[in-house]
Amino acid sequence: MHVDLFILVLIYGTDLGRAHFGYSFQLRPSDGRVLLRNIVIASLVLIPIAIASGFVRPQGVASFSPLKVLSYFALFTLRVGIFEEIFFRSGLMVLFRDLLEARTDKPSPQPLVWIPALGCSVLFGLSHIGNEAITNTTLVPWQYKGLYILLATTASLFYSITFSQT
Fold this sequence. Notes:
Blueprint: H1 2-13, H2 17-20, H3 29-52, H4 66-102, H5 109-126, H6 141-165
Helix pairs in contact: 3-6, 4-5, 5-6
């Protein structure tokens, strides 16, 4: 969490904010609509794949607890999520975009979004290769890791596109 705060201070301390790194504390209604739309699309794509492949097994309604969901959301958002977003989207994706823009005479907006998004997403997926199965799964370790990389890469594409749209 300290690293997250340091990076946010660094971003805002340079006065570049949303103009360069893409982060702002300014709330815009259009950002909320884009986020909600992309969460729904990502859920409709990722959840069926994860269930059909055996990556996760749905548990009964009896094991559902709003407190468990809230604590999971809070812990992973504050512990992992913010750092990953800052590092991969505001760090690597912006770096890839800047390098691509500097090496292209008249860059069009589409490649400046898709090429960095794909590169960043593949690296994001590969960074999850060390994750071990924490669920009761029938997959062998290499299948689980392969699916984890595929799902993380796909999820990262949604994160990257959302980041570029907002």
